[in-house]
Prior knowledge:
Blueprint: H1 9-16, H2 24-50, H3 54-63, H4 66-93, H5 102-118, H6 124-132, H7 142-171, H8 182-199, H9 201-204, H10 210-217, H11 225-239
Amino acid sequence: MHFSRPASAAEDASASVEPARVRPGSSRKAWLWRGLQLLATLAAFAYVLSLVDPAQLLTALRRVPPLRLLAVLGFMALSLGCGAVRWWLLFSAFGAPRPPPFGRVCRLYMVGFFYNTYLPGGVGGDLVRALASRDAWGEERAATAGIATVLVDRVLGLAGLLTVVSLVSLVHPLTVLGRAWLPGVLGSCAVAGLLIALRTAHWLAEYTPRRLSEWLRRLPQAQRWLPLLAAGLLSIVTQFVPT
């Protein structure tokens, strides 16, 4: 008589899970997408290099002391790091269901910085960030919530700059401004107005046409005020980093 060994729980679990099937066209689409990304990156670098003379660029770099160049790169990395932390805090402030890891946030922020700096318009990087982080918000609110969060991030940066201008005007008054507190107040009003607009979007959705109503319902609302306050304070601190 032959007695078979009872299967363990791990074996039962592994037996019940079917191997994942990879569609034949999925790998091809992945390679095609990476190829398009590579072409877009090369095109961006080609456009930047077409604006400058390589010989003059090398001559200018040789005139810069190495320590000063390292200091500039260090301050730029610090500024980008502060900006990435600010954007990362906004995912928590607006209650993203699946916030991306901090490493991915840093990478996307640097990619957006590159496109904003070296491509015409200055907003291409923001669209890249909004679309690349759409997985954090789910399928229904993917694009809308991503764009709204990036917009809040940009407005916080502008408000931080205006606040610093007000602080500097207290020490060295600028006749152009008129009153030292005016830029800071304008920046605070911009942030408050945007947050109020996002907060009342769901209420306005009840009185708008169906298509606009669906779009308004997808906008995120501030749910955690402590990360939002930290992001606002970080916007001010970032302005003091020399870049």
